Amino acid sequence: MEKNVDKFLADLASSAPTPGGGGAAALCGALGIALGNMVGNLTLGKKKYADVQEDILTLNAKAEALRADFVALIDADAEAFAPLSKAYGIPKDDPMRADIMEVGLKRAAEPPLDTMRKCAEALDVIADYAAKGSALAISDAGCAAALCVAAMKAAALNVRINTKSMMDRDAADKMNAETYELLTKYTKLAEKIYEDVSGRLI
């Protein structure tokens, strides 16, 4: 994805089918992990945090990789939705429509589910940044957690809008179950990070 923010937002606001909620969720995840990465970079080289320097370097490497993954998912989401968008235009009496729709629905559900998985990884990293990073940047760790859990929740809706119409209910149920498990576990983690950070700002 090589777009400036204004262009992306204008495209998002338009009537064009992409980018949509899935791409916006991935961008939100990228913003969250980038903020976490900033906490890490503000911690490096500080004598007060000399004992966690190696840990921070490891976290930074993970954060940089995750940011790249999220950016790639912005494009992946648009590419996956494009065939489904066209499939909706197939006449309902076309005997091929149902099969084409099924393939399109499953494919369109995959990038937002991947975004959820990456948000989970990001929140694990952000939890470590919040615990080990510079106290001067602790609010950014809280912001990072808030953004990543928002991204996960948004991505979950983009999974479910597609699984809702899938004929293969076993596959749909499996995807839905994973979204539920991720939301249950990582909403709690994000809330804990946010509450811990808020408590340190009093």
Tell me briefly what this model is.
80% of the residues lie in helices and 0% in strands. By secondary structure, it is mostly helical.
Provide an overview of this structure.
- With 202 residues, the chain is mainly α.
- It has a single domain (20-200), classed as Up-down Bundle (Four Helix Bundle (Hemerythrin (Met), subunit A)).
- 80% of the residues lie in helices and 0% in strands.
- It has helices spanning 5-13, 21-43, 53-87, 97-132, 138-163, 169-200.
- Helix 2 runs antiparallel to helix 3 (53-87) and helix 2 runs parallel beside helix 4 (97-132).
- The chain is elongated.
- The model has no long low-confidence stretch (mean pLDDT 96).
Helix-strand blueprint:
Layout: H1 5-13, H2 21-43, H3 53-87, H4 97-132, H5 138-163, H6 169-200
Helix pairs in contact: 2-3, 2-4, 2-5, 3-4, 4-5, 4-6, 5-6
Q: Main traits of this protein?
A:
Four Helix Bundle (Hemerythrin (Met), subunit A), 202 residues, elongated, mainly alpha, 80% helix
Average pLDDT works out at: 96
Instruction: Quote the beta fraction.
Output: under 5%
So, the CATH homologous superfamily? Formiminotetrahydrofolate cyclodeaminase monomer, up-and-down helical bundle
Cα Rg: 19 Å
What is the CA-CA span between the terminal residues? Answer: 39 Å
CATH class: Mainly Alpha
CATH architectural type: Up-down Bundle
Shape by Cα distribution: elongated
For the record, the count of structural domains works out to: 1
How is the biggest beta sheet arranged? none
Helical residues, percent: over 70%
Number of strand segments: 0
Count of helix runs:
6
Secondary-structure class: mainly alpha
